[in-house]
């Protein structure tokens, strides 16, 4: 065993950390090597010196500071800490998630017309056509919200279904804007073909914002009843009747070749909308004309379609009861909508089919 | 003399794991000087040593529920403290060690006479300086062995080293110290 090898093990020898064989070899070498014995003595004295050093003592108050810093955590805090993220991370994450969900919902709603229609079944189907018919009214609403981006969907439909009225006299004045909610659907009373412009000549007004205005109209329904075209109170039941009529002629409405601004105008001021089931339309038309003449009324519009004839008439209110009774002889009729308080001249729209 | 070894008694460990505040306080009281001493010898600065010792206890406090008891509690605490010290020394963020007397004066709480104090102060300053000049990997071994009294096996466990590595590092550290402290040797 060389001196170098022995000295490598001397430190462990001092600590009695050598195994018996190593220890025996080191002791055998030390008996014969004075230099290594000197080295061993020096190591022993160094270790003794180190062990004389007084142990360090933590400063006064150390325990209190550590305990305060560690903070005794109650059991429920430990469970929460282990199970969840810290609040400082969780709150911003939750807030971000909420905002993201909200943005996603708005985005989907904006991008999905079907969803929007489902959300507003009362207005979305009719309002665009009326807007297209009322550029003046549209311009009178600068507050029309920023939903115009999706307008083309509705504006296009509206333009196809109901182009603007060609005659200036027939154009509704802007002052009627507030009463648009009360207007009738664009379908029930088709106009004379002579007054119907070509669909291509009826672009939607540049400011048209059907979806937005439909919403506004829905919101202002209860606020502006006095803006009604006829000055009559709101007629929610009329609207439902108009929808029924409209749905019965969807195919007609969707066709670009059959714009009916006059029908819409008629419905704007209709007081009664009814459907009359007849066997012979020609005979029924004659009977109806005779009945109207008998009660002192007048036919203002008549339009023959493939499946029905739409007749619009003015009936003097005092004789409306007689008219309605006699109408039963023309055919089985059913009131789709009726204004509660009829004006002096009751405007009636009848669909013979 | 050091405090009596805090019991690794199952009951005490259970109380610690259960987060009992008084048990943790007992733990800190028992080991405060040892952990502070290791940090002081390693860092050479009382302020830093206090920071590190406190951090070691706080980390232990967080990890106590998961302490399985495979190692002795003291070994585990020394391991946390040693890692913190070595990490701080290696980080480069460590503030310049203030080799001030404040640290050295804390080495003893005895009240020796003026001559003895001078002699002791000189020796301890030389010791502190010699230890501080050791490479960090040797310094931690000699501190744990000769100042804290850990066995070779415990040091190997604390520092996650082979037993032979502990032995050779300790030998080199002692040999360095012997040369530097020669004038204090008989």
Order of helices and strands of chain A: HHHHHHHHHHHHHHEHEEHEE
Order of helices and strands of chain B: HHHHHHHHH
Large-scale geometry of chain B? globular
Which oligomeric form is depicted? Answer: heterodimer
Give the CA-CA distance, first to last residue of chain A: 125 Å
> Strand-residue fraction of chain A?
5-15%
Judged by helices, strands and strand pairing, the structural class of chain B is mainly alpha
Q: Please give the radius of gyration of chain B in angstroms.
A: 17 Å
Number of helices of chain A: 16
If you average the pLDDT of chain A, what whole number results? 67
Could you tell me the radius of gyration of chain A in angstroms? 47 Å
Spell out the blueprint of helices and strands.
The complex is a heterodimer of chains A (353) and B (186).
Chain A: H1 3-14, H2 20-32, H3 34-52, H4 62-70, H5 75-83, H6 87-111, H7 113-119, H8 127-132, H9 135-139, H10 151-161, H11 210-220, H12 236-248, H13 250-254, H14 261-268, E1 272-277, H15 281-294, E2 298-304, E3 309-316, H16 320-330, E4 332-338, E5 345-352
Parallel strand pairs in A: 1-5
Antiparallel strand pairs in A: 1-4, 2-3, 3-5
Helix pairs in contact in A: 1-2, 1-3, 2-3, 15-16
Chain B: H1 10-17, H2 21-43, H3 46-63, H4 73-91, H5 101-105, H6 114-133, H7 136-147, H8 152-159, H9 163-180
Task: Explain the overall architecture.
The complex is a heterodimer of chains A (353) and B (186). Chain A is of the alpha+beta class and 353 residues long. Chain A has helices at 3-14, 20-32, 34-52, 62-70, 75-83, 87-111, 113-119, 127-132, 135-139, 151-161, 210-220, 236-248, 250-254, 261-268, 281-294, 320-330; strands spanning 272-277, 298-304, 309-316, 332-338, 345-352. A five-stranded mixed sheet of chain A has the order 2-3-5-1-4, with helices on both faces. In chain A, helix 1 (3-14) runs parallel beside helix 3 (34-52), helix 2 packs across helix 3 (34-52) and helix 15 runs antiparallel to helix 16. Residues 123-266 of chain A have low confidence and may be disordered. Chain B contains nine helices and no strands. Residues 1-6 and 97-114 of chain B have low confidence and may be disordered.
């Amino acid at each position: 065993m060389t001196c170098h090898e022995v000295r490598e093990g001397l430190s462990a020898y001092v600590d009695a950390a050598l195994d018996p064989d190593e220890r025996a070899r080191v002791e055998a070498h030390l008996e014969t090597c004075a230099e290594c014995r000197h080295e061993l003595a020096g190591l022993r004295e160094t270790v003794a010196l180190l062990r004389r050093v007084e142990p360090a003592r933590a400063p006064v108050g150390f325990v209190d500071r550590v305990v305060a810093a560690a903070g005794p955590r109650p059991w429920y805090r430990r469970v929460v800490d282990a199970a969840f993220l810290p609040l400082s991370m969780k709150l911003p994450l939750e807030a971000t998630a909420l905002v993201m969900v909200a943005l996603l919902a708005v985005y989907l709603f904006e991008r999905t017309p079907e969803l929007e229609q489902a959300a507003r079944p009362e207005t979305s189907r009719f309002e665009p056509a009326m807007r297209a018919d009322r550029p003046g009214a549209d311009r009178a609403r600068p507050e029309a919200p920023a939903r115009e981006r999706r307008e083309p969907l509705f504006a296009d439909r509206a333009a196809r279904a109901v182009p603007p009225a060609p005659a200036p006299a027939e154009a509704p004045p802007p002052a009627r804007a507030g009463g648009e909610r009360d207007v009738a659907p664009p379908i029930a009373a088709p106009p004379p073909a002579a007054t119907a412009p070509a669909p291509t000549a009826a672009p939607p007004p540049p400011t048209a914002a059907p979806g937005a205005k439909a919403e506004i109209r829905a919101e202002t329904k209860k606020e502006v009843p006095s803006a009604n075209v006829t000055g009559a109170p709101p007629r929610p039941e009329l609207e439902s009747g108009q929808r029924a009529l409209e749905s019965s002629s969807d195919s007609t409405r969707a066709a670009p070749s059959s714009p009916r601004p006059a029908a819409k105008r008629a419905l704007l001021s209709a007081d009664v909308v009814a459907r009359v089931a007849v066997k012979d339309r020609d005979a029924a038309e004659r009977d109806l004309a005779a009945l109207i003449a008998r009660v002192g009324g007048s036919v203002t519009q008549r339009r023959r379609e493939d499946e029905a004839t739409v007749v619009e008439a003015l009936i003097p209110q005092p004789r409306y009861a007689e008219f309605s009774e006699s109408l039963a002889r023309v055919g089985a009729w059913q009131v789709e909508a009726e204004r509660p308080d009829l004006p002096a001249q009751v405007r009636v729209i009848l669909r013979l089919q | 003399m050091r405090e009596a070894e805090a019991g690794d008694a199952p009951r005490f460990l259970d109380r610690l794991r259960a987060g009992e505040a008084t048990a943790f306080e007992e733990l800190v009281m028992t080991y405060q000087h040892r952990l502070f001493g290791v940090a002081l010898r390693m860092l050479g600065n009382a302020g830093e040593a206090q920071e590190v010792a406190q951090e070691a206890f706080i980390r232990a406090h967080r990890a106590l529920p998961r302490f399985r008891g495979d190692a002795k509690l003291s070994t585990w605490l020394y391991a946390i403290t040693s890692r913190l010290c070595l990490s701080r020394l290696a980080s480069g963020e460590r503030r310049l060690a203030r080799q001030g007397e404040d640290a050295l004066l804390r080495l003893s709480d005895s009240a020796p006479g003026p001559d003895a104090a001078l002699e002791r102060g000189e020796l301890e300053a030389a010791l502190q300086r010699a230890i501080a000049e050791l490479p960090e990997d040797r310094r931690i071994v000699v501190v744990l062995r000769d100042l804290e009294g850990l066995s070779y096996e415990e040091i190997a466990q604390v520092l996650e080293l082979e037993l032979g590595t502990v032995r050779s590092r300790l030998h080199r550290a002692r040999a360095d110290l012997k040369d530097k402290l020669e004038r204090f040797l008989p």
